[in-house]
Amino acid sequence: MSFIDNFTAGAKIVFARMQTKIFWINFAKVAIPFFMIVTLISLFLNSWRAIFAGDFTKVNEINFADEKWKNFWGLKTFISVFYGLYVTHKKMN
What we know:
Elements: H1 3-18, H2 21-53, H3 56-63, H4 68-91
Helix pairs in contact: 2-3, 2-4
């Protein structure tokens, strides 16, 4: 079989799995906790001094003010969705 045939056959399998309810339940079980963990780690790495000092105005200024929230949440959402899809697909074999 050629590369194109293999790719097409694999894509059909992936999309067939994605159309099942159990896939999306498993996806949520993986992606949501991963999203929360990545968010907490990122907040601690970016502004751990302000968090432990209780200065949440500074945390907001460092991570969310001046439209920084778009980059902050967008990157974590993208990574979590990608990771969730990848792990769920691998575990459902």
